[in-house]
Amino acid sequence: MAKEIPDKLFFKIGEVAEITKVEPHVLRYWESEFGLIKPNKSEAGQRVYRKKDIDTILEIKKLLYEERFSIEGAKKRLFKRYKISDNSERVMETIKELKKDLLDISSILSKPR
User: Fold this and answer.
1) Model pTM?
2) Three-state DSSP class for 91?
């Protein structure tokens, strides 16, 4: 059973591996294989994942390990779900996520130290 995802903006690969119970080398492979997991890189060059990346990883894990899909079958299932047929919907979703992240960052920065 996966751990509950902490309420943070960003996660390092080790944290993601611990939360999802998926080894870091497998996470890196899934990034290249599926193209749906897109961590940013920190200034130090470390992968930095967001909650939506972790959700996608958990979905891939479920398809591969629990539902016993092949890599190709899991790709087809995911790409149907994440189909980029309506760009405006995806753009609005991204804008909403960015707005939430900016508000979270703003509240963190405005807290007294």
Assistant:
1) 0.71
2) helix
Q: Can you tell me the distance from the alpha carbon of 27 to that of 61, in angstroms, rounded to the nearest whole number?
A: 10
Alpha-carbon torsion, ordered 75, 35, 8, 1, to 10 deg? 30
Measured CA angle at 83 (ends 79, 87), to 5 deg? 150
The number of angstroms, rounded, from the C-alpha of 79 to the middle of its chain's C-alpha atoms is: 15
Q: In the CATH scheme, what is the code of domain 1-82?
A: 1.10.1660.10
pLDDT in tens, 31-71: 999 988 999 988 888 999 999 999 999 999 999 999 999 99
Map out the domains of the chain as residue ranges: 1-82, 84-113
